[in-house]
Amino acid sequence: MAQAADIFSIGHPAVGNVRELLTRLEKAKGRAQSKTGIVIEVNADSAKQLDVYVSALEMLGQYFSARVAGAPEEAVKLIVQALVPAKPVTSTQLKQAQMLAKAKTAVLQSGDWVSASEIASLANFSAANPSSQPSKWKRDKRLFAIRHEGVDYFPLYGLDETASYRPLPVLKELITVLEPMKDGWEMAYWFMSVNSWLGAKRPQDLLRSAPERVVAAAQQEVAGITHG
Length: 228
Fold this sequence. Notes:
Layout: H1 4-8, H2 18-28, H3 47-69, H4 73-83, H5 91-108, E1 113-115, H6 116-123, H7 132-139, E2 146-148, E3 151-155, E4 159-160, E5 166-167, H8 169-178, H9 184-192, H10 211-227
Antiparallel strand pairs: 1-3, 2-3, 4-5
Helix pairs in contact: 8-10
């Protein structure tokens, strides 16, 4: 068996545009001592950011190689086993992942979501702790949120601009109905999707004009999941 350090060693990262690096890797294939390489595309705003990323990558490689170099063969096998999926990913799972990614992207790009600080600005809340009121609404189930990269975002369509951007009263009832079956993201998908119980309209579009119909549609949704 080869040395573990040889298997896991990471050399000095090569920096350049993707096309240039791919060309260099292609040329290296014919060399007697060429090794397998990978290309990682980094979107950096400045050369300084790129330098920091490359330095961190080098440090990670050195640390990992040092930890694995003296490991017995069985330990290396366990590390590899932990990094490899337990079983092949099926085409169905890939399609589900693609659909989920597409749905989340649609939600984030809809323009319907605002952060706690943005709500504070719209509602003229105190700047000292802008997230306190939206967070309290979330705890009290008067408003739901999606969490993206560590930040809560709240549905703008759930706020009443005629009442200083407080949550619409019907939202609490809807959250109570949907919460046992749906998390924040799943609620977001439901509110933005056309609904047959609402005449092919979206629930979020009828929150003001026909709140009782939206509640009935939510109840039908939960009943379908429970008995489906």
